[in-house]
Amino acid sequence: MIFDFRRVGAALLFAALCLPVPALSAGTGLVFVSNEKTHNITVLDPKDYSIVKWIETSRRPRDMRFNNDNTLLYVACGDDDVIDVIDVATLEVVDHIPTGPSPEVFYFSPDDSLIYVSNEENSTLQIIDVAQRVIIDEVATGAEPEGVVVSEDGKIVYVTSEVSDMVHVIDAETHTLTDNIIVGTRPRRFVLTPDGKELWVSDELSGEVSIIDRATNEISHTLQFLPPGFRQVDVTPVGMEISKDGSTVYVTLGRANHIASVDAATKEIKEYVLVGSRAWGIALSPDETTIFVTNGLSDDVSIIDVASMKVLQSVQVGRVPHTVRIDE
Q1: In whole angstroms, how far apart are CA 204 and each of 186, 213, 238?
Q2: CB–CB of 13/7 below 8 Å?
Q3: pLDDT at residue 1 in the model
Q4: pTM of the full structure
Q5: Per-residue pLDDT, 233
Q6: Which of 43, 50, 157, 275 has its CA 20 to 30 A from that of 324?
Q7: DSSP label of 9
């Protein structure tokens, strides 16, 4: 009997390719980057930053968040009015949750039972029951709401309105607006300090970060930025991340193509780091040794070593990367 080794080899290769991809364990450290214009998510290996997979999503994926046990990654897809749900083990989209027009940024209630999502086009904060996949209420906001964050106890929801230059304070139990805080021009994103005392708000067009005293709902400090070689008009802060001990806040500076590190106690800028074009989203690695920054106009992610505050490398991803999240 004569064996055709080429035919046997091809058959074995075909069988190998048909085997199911093994499920990944929790806490993989995988880095997920949403790309607005290519309608997908780039998944990076944390060891060498190679691309593990491209996950096709609904159109215009923007903000992303994990549930509490990191088994699912939720993705707001602005052009299809849905939140896609990705199984982190299989890296596949497994569900779609309908929303209002143009979902942008969202946040979970502490127990994962509710999603609070800003709907840009109809100027509302929408409240979605996750288990039932239905919208249970809406709260009117100023025009073009974006940033959303929920207090640690789940009792207060904060929402930015880009057009009205306000932070709206919403009672999470009654779904009523309790206060409006005037901040800088075009407020975008939030950071809550771990001690619960401050709410930091990035003001894109005034080039500032407003720091709100949560006890009084008044601005206690305003930070301004000016990295070397740029004009004030270039400084457009958006994304922020805070260290776990609350000592340092990292701020992306948009068209100024830098991030800034800020001493949270003294409110002094410690350092600027040059990254890609239009620095936007930002995330700290679980061990806080590495910073990932999405650059919306150079279509890449800058990877920064925290100890030296130097860029280690940049990785090309999809078109107009928006948000970066890490599976902790």
Answers
A1: 5, 20, 6
A2: no
A3: 37
A4: 0.91
A5: 96
A6: 157
A7: H
| Whether the Cβ atoms of residue 69 and residue 86 lie closer than 8 Å to each other | no
| Residue ranges of the chain whose pLDDT lies below 50 | 1-25
- Tokens 């990944």 correspond to 24
For residue 14, the model assigns a pLDDT of 37
Backbone angles phi, psi at 73, to 5 degrees: -115, 125
CB 262 within 8 A of CB 268: yes
Residue 48 half-sphere exposure toward CB, CA atoms < 13 A = 3
Determine the Cα angle at 144 with ends 174 and 148, to 5°.
50
Contacts of 220 (CB under 8 A, 6+ apart): 198, 211, 212, 213
pLDDT of residue 26: 60
- The set of residues, in sequence order, having a beta carbon less than 8 Å from that of 297 and lying 6+ positions away, is 276, 277, 278, 320
pLDDT tens for residues 102-113? 999 999 999 999
Give CA–CA dist 208/187, Å, rounded: 9
